[in-house]
Amino acid sequence: MDELEFDRELQALLEGRLPRSASLAQPPSSLPPAVVALRAGNISEPLVGHRARFQMTSFGEHGEWLDYGWRDGLRIVSEPTAVDGLAEPGVWVQEEADYYRTLAGIADLPRFAAGVSRLWVEEYVSQEALGQPLSGDVVTDPADRWLTGVVRDPNAPRISRPVPAREVNSFIGRRAIAADDDGHYRFDLRIADQPTYGEDGRVYLSVVEESDWFLWSARTYTGHHPSLTSVLADQLWVES
């Protein structure tokens, strides 16, 4: 990807970003939001609370670059600052489970510092604003998804479009987006069980708010969980 094309795609993505809220008011006919991963250095707004992924790199004994990999499922817990041991400003990040448990009052959970040049921030973006698939799009054909890392430019914004639940084989723990009857989308959800038939003969899946999903291992719940709801399979998308 040349610099001009990258700038064009980046501007389109920034214009299509959606507000960080519990629901998105969109017409019922619209598509659910996609997820875009942008370099932290391209984000001017506060970073705390954002989902993130960290690009890990390895080098040979003479400093030559060998390979890279990704650590995802992270949340940012500080704004950029000077960090001992980093040659650039960094932010502190936590695994999502530790992030939510910290918010719930559990102290002294692990975190680590990451340089901003190797941190990518995940945000929701309108699929209508995206238009046709861009060069950063994740391959969406189920038979070809394993090729994503081969065909995608690692330096391009990473765009991940949600997949209808009916096209997914594994469910429990997956991050999901649910459509309400009034045209709102709910996100930051996790699927809590396998599909089941409802009394009306239709297929449903249970979802729970993501914060509660990660607290289940730290707390014991009895009875009906307050954020547990059933969603029609046809109104649920799974983040790829």
Overview in brief:
The chain has 240 residues and is of the alpha+beta class.
Please name the defining characteristics of this protein.
240 residues; alpha+beta; SH3 type barrels; 8-stranded antiparallel β-sheet; globular
Could you characterize the architecture of this molecule?
This protein has 240 residues and is an alpha+beta fold. The chain has a domain at 162-240: SH3 type barrels, CATH 2.30.30. Helices cover 15% and strands 34% of the residues. It contains five helices and 15 strands. It has helices at residues 3-15, 96-103, 127-130, 148-151, 210-215; strands spanning 23-25, 34-39, 51-59, 65-76, 90-95, 112-115, 119-125, 158-160, 163-164, 175-179, 184-191, 196-197, 203-209, 229-232, 236-238. Strands 1, 9, 10, 11, 12, 13, 14 and 15 form an eight-stranded antiparallel beta sheet that branches. The chain has a seven-stranded antiparallel beta sheet with strand order 6-5-4-3-7-2-8. A hairpin with a 5-residue loop joins β3 and β4. The radius of gyration is 19 Å and the shape is globular.
Biggest beta sheet attributes: 8 strands, antiparallel
Mean pLDDT: 79
Helix/sheet category: alpha+beta
How large is the count of helical segments?
A: 5
SSE run:
HEEEEEHEEHHEEEEEEHEE
CATH architecture group name of the domain at 162-240: Roll
* CATH top level class name of the domain at 162-240: Mainly Beta
Distance between the termini: 23 Å
Estimate the global geometry from the Cα principal axes. globular
- What is the total tally of β strands? 15
Radius of gyration: 19 Å
Q: Low-confidence parts lasting 5 or more residues at pLDDT below 50?
A: none
Task: Indicate the CATH topology of the domain at 162-240.
Answer: SH3 type barrels
The percent of residues in helical segments reads 10-25%
| Proportion of residues in extended strands | 25-35%
